[in-house]
Write a structure and sequence with these properties.
This protein has 7 helices and 12 strands. With 199 residues, the protein is an alpha+beta fold. The protein has one domain. Strands 5-9-10-8-6-7-12 form a 7-stranded mixed β-sheet, with helices on one face. α3 packs across α4. It is globular, with a radius of gyration of 16 Å. The N and C termini lie far apart (45 Å).
């Protein structure tokens, strides 16, 4: 059941995709949410029957980093993604091309931090609640890419089949090129926003 906090964070609209509810945030991009517990197999089946597909981790993380409303509506939740585990471990951020960048000990805002666990099977995304993400006594992060543990997620999230992400850099057709790529800041550092705007 959607909480009052979630209703304030994202706008729930009418749905053409069965019981999946479209939620629109600050960017206007819609994600389709079913508040039903489902393991990976059931999640994929429910999505397919509704004419939806699961997000890749690049698509959904880039979107949530840009869309405060959608991110707020998913805090404290986790759900299954399209890929299997990506086989890396550590603290990362994500650049504008959807590539995970190892941040090592560099100071990065909590909202841009991704804890990647060495999952080898089903991949899921955790959007940590504020009390977890802002835990001051330990290194903290907003997002976690983790093994789905073959158990039921509290919700199912997808996007229409055949529809690429609104941001072309997060388009589903590019997912295979991004998957399992890793770039450290020593090889190719992230540009400062001021530097990037001058290009």
């Amino acid at each position: 059941m959607e909480t009052s906090t979630q209703r304030k964070a994202g706008t729930v609209l009418g749905s053409r995709y069965g019981e999946f509810e479209p939620i629109s945030g600050t960017t206007g991009v819609k994600i389709y949410v079913l508040n039903q517990e489902a393991d990976h197999a059931t999640s994929m089946d429910l999505l397919q029957k509704a004419g939806l597909r699961p997000y890749t981790y690049q698509e959904i993380i880039l979107l949530l980093m840009k869309d405060e409303g959608l991110k707020n509506s998913l805090k404290g939740k986790w759900f299954y993604l399209a890929e299997l585990g990506i086989g890396i471990d550590g603290l990362y951020t994500m650049d504008e091309n959807g590539v995970l960048v190892n941040i090592r000990k560099k100071k990065i805002p909590v909202e841009e931090k991704i804890r990647v666990w060495p999952a080898k099977s089903l991949l899921s995304l955790v959007v940590n609640s504020d009390d977890v993400a802002n835990d001051s006594w330990d290194d903290s992060w907003r997002f976690e890419l983790a093994d789905g543990r073959s158990c039921a997620a509290p919700m199912v999230i997808g996007t229409p089949i055949g529809r690429e992400a609104t941001d072309p850099k997060a388009a589903g057709s590019q997912a295979e090129n991004w998957c399992r790529q890793e770039r450290t800041e020593t090889k190719e550092p992230l540009l400062d926003k001021k530097d990037a705007s001058s290009l």
